[in-house]
Records
---
Amino acid sequence: MSRTTRSLVRVLSAGTAAGLVALSLAACGGGGDASAGSGDCTPAHPDLKTLTQGELTVASYDYAPATILNGDTVTGMEGDLIAEIAKMECLKVTVSTSGGAGAVIPSVQSKRVDIGSGNWLRTKERTKIVYLSTPLWSDPQAIVSKTGLTSDQLEGKKIDSVAGNLWNDSMQKWLGDNFKIYQDDESIYGDLKAGRIDALVASAASAKYRFKDAPIEGATVVDVKPNANVPQFASVGQVMLPSSLDNQELGKALDEDIKKLRENGTIKSILEKYGIDPSVGEPGEPSLL
């Protein structure tokens, strides 16, 4: 998060189990055993271990176009990519939506799910608590306002962000009480539209995608520029899938699967499907914010 979205001090919701819903079945059949394969399906990593045999459990929330929740399914760029990974590993995908953005990383840490999704960025701090997959794609962050504000014009303004974004602590120190953290996108964009806040910080891709169907009159999306008060604005973030540090084999399998899906053009196709410049699908060598 940046979702990322993009996003994002998190608290694990007590109702996580109730938020588990079936996402999809791998093309090779549901309930397949990742360690042995099922039917005609041979997993790319036969010895892969997940929390529940034959399943890949994912913590997510609604953060289009990265993750789009619709009933018992999640699509979007990451949702589609995870479905492809599940096919490669002969796994059924189950997604936990309890707790929203704030529950994703804690759910991974506490091993209530196998992986997280929702535009999470590769950062130095996150290396201490979760395994960071190889980059999926890059994701520029932006200032979204109705007055064309830039990242060096925020002092004295009411600025908001979603829980878990890597810049939240820096912006809290800089802006003080003028900076607030939300748990979901709907509330933050609602306040921008109503004029209760001056701007929000979000994934540029997420904001632009949202405005296609739900425009806000006069709203602009301006990519952030380096700002001494917010070191996280110094470079473009790389999106990843977080997994448990206690399951390095899963993390490494994700790395290899993502690499293959980039090489065979799947990532490019997914980005194009959601109207995202496919060039972001070549994020370069892994880096940390």
---
Amino acid sequence: MGRAVNKLSLSEILHKELHVRPEENKPLGSLSTLGVGGWAECFVEPQDLKDCQRVFELRSRWGFPIWILGGGSNVVFADGSVAGVVLSTRRLDRSWWPPYEDVEKAGVIAELQSGCLLSLVVERAAREGLGGMEFALGIPGTIGGALAGNAGTGGRSIGDLLEEVTSIEEDGSLRRWLRGEFSYAYRRLSLADGVRFLASCKLHFLPVPYREIEHELKRFRELRSPQPRGVRSAGCTFKNPPGDSAGRILDECGCKGMRVGGAVVSSHHANFILNEGNASGSDVLELARRCRDKVYRAKSVLLLPEIKFLGFGEGVF
């Protein structure tokens, strides 16, 4: 059965099935760190996994696209109406940490839902003397987004801590994946391929002397110091090519200051595209394309996007 034969709107279909009320034509710009994009045909913010499962079950029946929105970093929404359902994980932010007195030399396993903010996880782990998450200092966004892109820096990533992932599959069923059933690499987790929602995970932390945690936090803070602050950005535009830095290559090719409409490449770090206040999603996409093409012509290096362009259609980048 397809959507074309159904007389109800997508929001009306979901409203009959969910515990939360969907919103029609929800503006998306304010929900992303870059601040661009149009509006969602249907926007839902589930409070539990059962509602998430139901959305995926309905998708398998009606065929509408689903866009997962976490903290809003690393995403660029298309202008105009974004067809389908934008599913926000903001309320899926529960976490379960063992009592401090139960921390042993073997470490602890914390369970985190996809909407948990990375900043709060870093803070909690450091406060309890648990090492491993220091690399995430200053990374905006949520656990779910960090999982999907295997977030990391300085040779460390969230995949190093990952013991288990609970996903919602294409048909709405829950599946548990144990370490060894998935793989991870630079900016990639195998489970993020295909139509699947990474709903929660279990991370393994080891007890570490606080002075060592402080040292690592300082190290990662310094690694991120060249990045622009206090501006509207989606984060790094491109992935680093093997053994090199996308920012360095873009800088060498003269990309700093390049502009399309209200989107401009940062003068501080060439791998960041900024919204000066009136950029559109199309501006950002076109500017990223021009930077990619300029690098390819000069270096024969094809830079791959780290940010995700949502609602533009397949093969836009």
---
Amino acid sequence: MQAGRLSFSLCAAVLLACAGLFSSLSASADYPDKPIRVIVPFPPGGATDSLARVLGDFMSRDLGQPIVIDNRSGAGTMIGSEAAVNARPDGYTLLLTISSLVQAPHLLSNPPFDPVEDFTPVAQLVTTPLVLTVLGESGIETPQQLVQKVKSEPGRHVYGSYGAGSSGHLYMHAFTEQTGLDWVHVPYRGEAPSVTDLLGGQITGVIMSGVGALPHVRSGRMNALAVTGPYRMPAMPDVPTFKELGYERMDNRGWFGLFGPKGVPAEVVQRLSDSATKALADPEVVQRIENLSLIIDPLPAAEFAPIVKRDNDIWSAIIKEVGVKLD
């Protein structure tokens, strides 16, 4: 009698497990059958938000469901990222973010998530370099000339970035360590005030976004000395990469990527990745993205995931070396 009850319980458990599996498979096959929320960890109006809305317009038509952009800014992208990581892994809550995903957690003593283990990469979308700039009238045209200038006047120079622990700060730390410069880092609350001070002659150099630097470089008010990443920026083809010039740890380019929480079914990831890739080949989408001075560089999940892990390892090491914490 007892064996019979055990056998019945075992069969019931197996049936429940199978029912759950078939339900999950059915849900994946029908995906999507309701609106998709895309969390953007920045306020409306910036490059990440603009990219999300451009892609959302196309992908909503392609997927047959509305895509709702949910701006969750604050705490250096951590508020939006944490909201995404705690969502159900069903493909209906996604995160469109930048490479700060693998930087911000390392700036906290007790980060609420692991950027590699707790997210499902869906696709890399676009990339963007940072540009080391100086005042146009300074006469400095190469990183080596900048190094010579700063070394000739020790203790008199400062450089700016768009925030402590930002990519700009960390790249410039790597540059400073390799060149042995004696200058001071000034972290600004965003890129705009650092540009104002550079153009006003209050600081010597700024490392900044390509989209922010481009109009000032074209007008001659700034000189672009070098760009981060593995290859030159199409909008500034005459500006060399740091890698070309022999500098190390300056060759990974900032990415914009689409993520889900850990555990999103592979079929759903594939559906989303295919839709995003299709969007990035559409002429209208391409034009709108190029207007943001972003470089279209799509990669599927299988190729994007190793990049996320590599960049996480690189940035965690640099942040530990710098010793910066934001809490």
